[in-house]
Specification:
The protein has helices at 3-29, 37-53, 58-81, 87-106, 130-153, 156-166, 168-173, 178-204, 215-229, 235-258, 269-292; strands at residues 110-112, 206-208. By secondary structure, the chain is mainly α.
Length: 293
């Protein structure tokens, strides 16, 4: 694997680190299986791309993408909490609806950003390769978001949200408004995913309505795989494990697709993804068996 491919995999791993944090929030903290991310990821990309192509400030476009993702997550949670629709089914309904919404937002299947200014444009004037500068900038943003998320989850509201995910009935009995916790948690989760989508579109130079297919699989692979390799009881260790899992996942995909002796090609990406996710799912079981032995 070339150095450029390696650095490109690191960059994608860091971008999907935002997705992994969002999936961790819904899947681990709230115990809410959420497929909305397959729609909120391209939603963030679509909103940011449309705003940028229209001549808007890319930072404002990225912020609008975060708001749009939060709205998508809120709708999913509202269907589950207020309409009493099964969590998984509510997220599937949102994911299906978001496909049409994303087409409406973009007005066409894809938007190119190669000639437009993005939040990464000022970095291109630096006397360093974009393959080095872009990942460092994304890492800095990811570190800030991770620290803020950890601070939130260890706050009074964050503890109430974690209690809701652990045992909603007990949390409600202790005076916690579990409905508000689920709504706010799902909004935050999909806001992080949409942020990842906005950064992905600006980094790769395009937004596509199909770019969200399999996002939940990537997020779960990062969360489950990362926490299997880096176990820890603290929120900080859990979030760092998710980011590590995201980077490791993209590196393993890059190695598999660039290793000539394996014989895999770009069209085998979904096959590689399925194998890696399957490995991440069975890894904790193997580790438990080794500890018992």
């Amino acid at each position: 694997m070339s150095l450029i491919a390696f650095l490109g995999a690191i960059e994608l791993g860091l971008i999907f680190g935002f997705v992994a944090l969002g999936v961790y929030l819904s899947f681990r903290v709230l115990d809410f299986p959420d497929l909305t991310v397959d729609g909120s990821f391209p939603l963030g990309a679509a909103v940011a791309a449309v705003w940028i192509v229209g001549g808007g400030n890319p930072w404002v476009g990225t912020a609008l993408a975060v708001v749009a993702g939060a709205m998508a997550g809120t709708v999913t949670a509202w269907m589950a909490v207020k309409l009493k629709i099964l969590n998984l089914l509510a997220s599937i309904l949102s994911m299906i609806a978001l496909y049409s919404i994303n087409l409406r937002v973009m007005g066409r299947p894809n938007i190119a950003l190669l000639t437009d200014d993005t939040i990464f444009t000022p970095l291109e004037s630096l006397p360093f390769s974009r393959y080095v500068v872009f990942p460092l900038a994304i890492l800095a943003g990811l570190a800030v978001v991770t620290l803020l998320l950890n601070r939130f989850l260890n706050s009074e509201v964050g503890l109430a949200m974690r209690a809701t995910g652990e045992n909603a009935r007990m949390a409600s009995g202790n005076g916690i408004n579990t409905s508000v916790m689920v709504l706010s948690g799902m909004a935050l989760s999909n806001a992080l995913v949409a942020l990842g989508g906005a950064l992905f579109a600006q980094s790769q130079g395009s937004a596509d309505v199909t770019m969200g297919v399999g996002t939940i699989v990537v997020g779960l692979a990062a969360v489950i795989g990362g926490q299997s390799l880096i176990p820890g009881r603290t929120i900080l260790m859990a979030t760092l494990a998710c980011i590590f899992g995201s980077i490791l996942y993209r590196l393993m995909v890059a190695v598999a697709l660039n290793a000539d002796f394996i014989g895999l090609k770009a069209q085998d990406l979904n096959l590689v993804t399925a194998l890696l996710v399957g490995f991440a799912l069975v890894l904790p079981r193997f580790k438990r068996k080794r500890r018992v032995a």
